[in-house]
Amino acid sequence: MKPAIPVYDICSLSMGKDQQDLLIERLNHYLQNNYQKAIHQHGHSFYHLVLFTKGSGSHTLDFTKFSVQPYQVYFMIPGQVHNWHFSPDTDGYVIHFSETFFRSFLMHHDYLERFPFFSGDSKDQVLTVPLPAREEVKALFEKLVAEMETPQFDMIRVLMLQLFLLIERTSVREKKKAIPQQKLLVLRNFQQLINKHYRTIKLPKEYAELLYITPNHLNALCQDLLGKTAGELIRERILLEAKRMLTNADLTVTQIAYELNFQDNSYFNRFFKKYAGITPDDFRKSLNN
Question: How is the beta sheet containing 22-26 ordered, strand by strand?
Fold first, then answer.
């Protein structure tokens, strides 16, 4: 049987360095040691981000393919699946950090979730740094690389937070103009609840109860801000997890249906084909093409 999709931790990618919570390197050096691992679908147990400064190729994040461009930056959260194919001249910077790296540093443990690029939604995780901000962004990466020589971790945390705030301010596509902050907060809370409970809570009305609003209010808010119903957002998250699990050849379709709390295998197959356009088995076969 084909082996299960690998899920790497930071130690497995640090080439002998005793790195459990943090890795910061120039991308060309990182690729020399890890390119063969990265060309195949794999997952991470940590947060991961890359800034490209030159080169070409493509990378796939949760089954959405992106072309590499200079000063593109992409982010991943633990549990996502990706792979890449880059030209030999590709360069930039790569940062890995564990889920616990900021935990003792920040009062709000969910602080990173405020950034759209840490949402786990691939369309918000790949950004192009605009020209006026490029030198400042690159300078922060250079400081982070230099700081790793004799790491003072609180300084690294401060620089990383500065980088996240700068990218949010300059690079996040503005889709929320003139929208009250309260609406955005409810939507983000809904998305976070879906990420936590998609296996067991399937109905918009159940999420509305957790948010102390009516189902109609929740649905109207999703339609207004995203052009989708609350039910669509829930189904998209379930479908995404099904795709991730299907990359693991050690899991049968029946096991995946059970893990996602479908009534039976045939119901899961109908759900997947309706929203993905192909059967789970055909999707699994397509990963090898």
Answer: 22-26, 91-97, 47-54, 72-76, 126-128
